[in-house]
# Entry
Amino acid sequence: MIVSTRREATQFRNTLSLGTSMSALGAALLLFGATAAQAQTSPAPAADAPAAEDTGKDIVVTGFRAALRSATAKKKNSETVVESVSAEDIGKLPDNGIGESIARLPGISAQRNAGRANIISIRGFGPDFSSTTLNGRQQTTTNDSRAVEFDQYPSEILAGVDVYKTAEADHNAGGLVGSVDLRTIRPLDVSKRILAVGARGTYTGGKIDPNSSNVGYRAYGTYVDKFADDRVGVALSVAYTDEPYQTDDFNAWGYGGYPGGAQGMNGIKSWVETDKLKRFGANGTVQGQLDDNLRVTIDGFYSRFVDRIDQRGFEMPFNCGGGCGRDSISNVSSSNGLVTSATIAGTPLIENYANDRVANQYSFGVNGAWDNHNGWKAVADFSWSRTDRTDTSIQTTAGLGRALPFATAIVSYQTTPKGPQFTSNYNGTNPALVLTDVEGWSGSPVQAGYQNLRRTKDDLVEARGEIERDIGGFLKSIKAGVNYTTRTKTLSAQEGYLSPPNNALTAAIPSNILLSPVTLGRGLGTIIAYDPRTLVSNGVLVYNSNTFGSTKGYGVEEDVLTPYVMAKLDGQFGSSVLTGNIGVQAQHTSVTSTGVAFPTVKDKYWMVLPSANLNLRTASDFVFRLAASKQMMRARLPDLNNVITYGVDTTRSPIIYSGSGGNPRLRPYQAWAVDFNVEKYFGNKGYVALQLFYKDITSYIANGFTNFDYTGFPPVPSANLPTSPVGLLFSQVNTSGGHVYGAEVAGTLPFDIFTPALSGFGLTGGGGYTETKVKDFNGATTTIPGYSKWVASLTAFYEKNGINVRGSARYRSKYLGDFALYSGGLDRQQVLGETIYDAQLGYDFQDGSKLHGLSLYVQGQNLSNTRSATLGTTDPLSYLKYQTYGRRFVAGFTYKF
# Structure
């Protein structure tokens, strides 16, 4: 039976010549296979045959060890380089969330947001270089770009996750470094009825904001059954999360010259941030074996994601040369060019912010897989995904008055390895505090706050048809198909000033809206707290629309048609078996970019993407893999918008139009890739592997100037206008690229492969090393977002007689991280390396017990409270960000009837 799900890939955008002929590529790979096969002397098992296990008394392996065996079998039998995570049981992925599970796989790392590992990097590339599918189907996202934030999917409804690192011609979603496929339960593959429930409680430690919560919970239920003589299967899963997160956050404005010439902080923001995440997820699957030839699968998924964030903090300009509230700097001490202590007289702001996200995601798919059991197979698949998202950000500021002619605070600081520590004489709970523009930087109306409302709609429809014919012999079969995807992402924005009523300069803070005061760390004292969401409705501030916000709206539509052909290979070479595939896909992409205030821009192009995968499987349980392909990943969707700020550059002769913004004609990242693996298996119990890879990046994306036609854009009010509508646009542009290469080691080693005395003990994990050299627009070497030179993870476990104990660590070296801006854009900063430690202890009641089916567990997460930090200079004490998320403790149960 044809597999009814598959991973798709997001296609790229550069018209591409094939370069190397498929025949030459195939000949080289086949020569490798034939040469390696001559070295083998005993028969090899078939590629998809299960590994031989212990004979004699049956040994039933369950839980974490069974999940590792399932992942090992997936990797062993795959025709590509793949890493997998399988659920231990229904509703039991091995970690707190999908992101944590994926980040433990070899060559993969995560960036934390509010302590959650929801952004994934594969082989040193950030989230914008890989794609994610659900049951093989492309999905819309809860952010502005294509990158999936993994906390939008409840881990309890997933059966597993596969990360594919090499390409196949019948996989269309794209990915310069790989693609992630999230898998749900296939009910016809389950041997018996399942009814399972589970719940857990979460404790985040002491409250950093007395108005927040530090306890939460998660619950789920799953039902799977088969009917009509096992020809109809149903799987239903629901999960609900209500969990808190908290962040102790310090930010510096940047670093500039202090008296004496050393670099010191230009300003500071110190926050407490509390986060209440509520998420409901449901998934349903119906499968029907309609006759001996046809199987139909229908999938539906829904997720509602509500994230409510409160930020309360202290902000103060330090170094404005007298332009920030009469600031002045004294008592400066420095070391190696960095100010290590100083005293600043200035004007602080007390800030209460709110950032709320509500996202509803819908996904539906139907698949028909037909096999006449006489050499012909066919697949038809249709899917739809949609995400509706609303982000509301509210900023408000309070101080002792507006643009006061004197300093209102004296603050001193001292640098430390854990961020700066302060001494302040400012009273952040002073009853005289008012809502206003403290520094006096706004015009009319006075800006005591600002509101930014962004609504995004993301729609994706995908259809695929495929036919396959068995040939027999080494050329096992040939398949041909076509995939069509259309995606539309639109953004609308509404912005406005929050001002004191009646054109006043300040607004009093009513005592009835005040909450319990918040004590900040780092010596900055206690500050007032209130809910800024209530200020307009209570008449404390008034909303004045800023019409400029509406001009930020845009829409991007992509239509991608992908015909493909692929040959499957399977043959005996001496005593070994050679399997794999060779194929090619052609992609035609049409892009239409519309803007609220700007004309429509269109672009179209073709790409040709060949791929080949060869796997030599020996009798001694070695697998040698060689893969080569042309890979691509499309640009971030916001980078394709045509929202442009422009004017006339009169410094040039002749004068020209010049602007900045999106680039609708941006083409994809592209690379030629080669992978070579050596993998040794111990049946399906475990394995060790060495994985080598090289990518020649032929097209990269970086900031730079490109020619742009301003025809049709609103006229510029200027007495002197250029004679030509063609000018320059500073935007994301395509550059010549560079290269990436590296090595990964991976393995799962249950110790009973060495001696039965160590049955139940084991290790699983891996590490990766990556080198990269990529050029920017000016030809200078630049850093790839998300790139870490070193990544590693290790889990030690014991599981036997119902007892399960695990300790895990994951490490990544420094990398360029993405941080969301208030405007919706990205701020990229160099994040320092970090190591995260987790542990779990559990017990599964065994056969014969009245509580059989019940599992209990406790977890400790982020046990060392590892910080996330970025630097402003090369000095290790020059922190731009220093965040800690606290330790998390979880206790829960699952019960399977």
